[in-house]
Specification:
By secondary structure, this protein is α+β, with helices and mostly antiparallel strands. The protein has four helices and eight strands, in the order E-H-H-E-E-H-H-E-E-E-E-E. A hairpin with a 2-residue loop joins strand 2 and strand 3. The longest helix is centred in the N-terminal third of the chain and has 10 residues.
Length: about 230
């Protein structure tokens, strides 16, 4: 296992705003060929839900001021990948996300949650008390911090990984086969962590979600990684 660094929190609106207003959607060198083609075809210039002036975002049918401290949400895998490239970084692999022990060579973290064995407690370990309101501010739940110092690993936004969604040795479909296996090898990308709108039964570090790289309707955000 190579040594790597991983972000302590999901990327915030403020940080992504700097990317968007600093030429993030114009700098061709930060985008994959497929991502650039998608962006140009659909005239993508900001995350889904943001207003054109970047001052507000639509959340569950209402327009709220853009909160600089909340994780950016409704970004595609293409946008997440471009953001990471712009910062000389990359999206974490699924294994790296699961280990969440930056800079070590230890095995996968065996406990069921980032903080240990106890199930999530709303307002203490995860953002489960925010249902209907959106994600909490990045890093707002120190009691949910993993041993390596990562916060917001579950219960805030789904986090894109670099991995294509496929099977692996020992993989078992959950909660039912049709949720995962039919999408293997079909161009889908894997997400981890659950969001504030995800049912608690699947808000765990082991549950795998997926979506196509151009999709933005999911409550998806970004955590970046970098080789150490």
């Amino acid at each position: 296992m190579r040594r790597y660094l991983i972000g302590a929190t999901p990327i915030t609106n403020a940080t992504y705003l700097h990317f968007a207003e600093g030429g993030g959607y114009q700098r061709r060198e930060w985008w994959s060929d497929e991502g650039w083609s998608w962006k140009e075809q659909y005239d993508i210039t900001r995350p889904g839900g943001w207003t054109a002036d970047h001052s507000a975002e639509w959340r569950l049918g209402r327009l709220d001021p853009l909160d600089p401290n909340r994780p950016v949400v409704h970004v595609s895998w293409f946008e997440a990948d471009a953001f990471a490239r712009a910062h000389d970084a990359r999206l974490p692999t699924e294994i790296e996300w699961r280990r969440r022990r930056p800079g070590t060579r230890t095995g996968a973290w065996a406990l069921p949650y980032p903080w240990g064995s106890d199930a999530p407690v709303a307002g203490v370990h995860a953002n489960l008390d925010q249902l209907g309101c959106g994600p909490a501010a990045a890093g707002a739940y120190p009691a949910g911090e993993s041993p390596c110092g990562c916060r917001g690993m579950i219960g805030d936004v789904w986090e894109w990984t670099s991995a294509e969604f496929d099977g692996y040795d020992g993989f078992a479909p959950f909660p039912y086969r049709e949720y995962s296996e039919p999408f293997f090898g079909a161009g889908y990308r894997a997400l981890r962590g659950g969001s504030w709108a995800t049912r608690p039964r699947v808000v765990t570090p082991t549950f795998r979600n997926c979506d196509l790289p151009q999709r933005r309707q999911i409550f998806s955000g970004i955590r970046i990684a970098r080789d150490a």
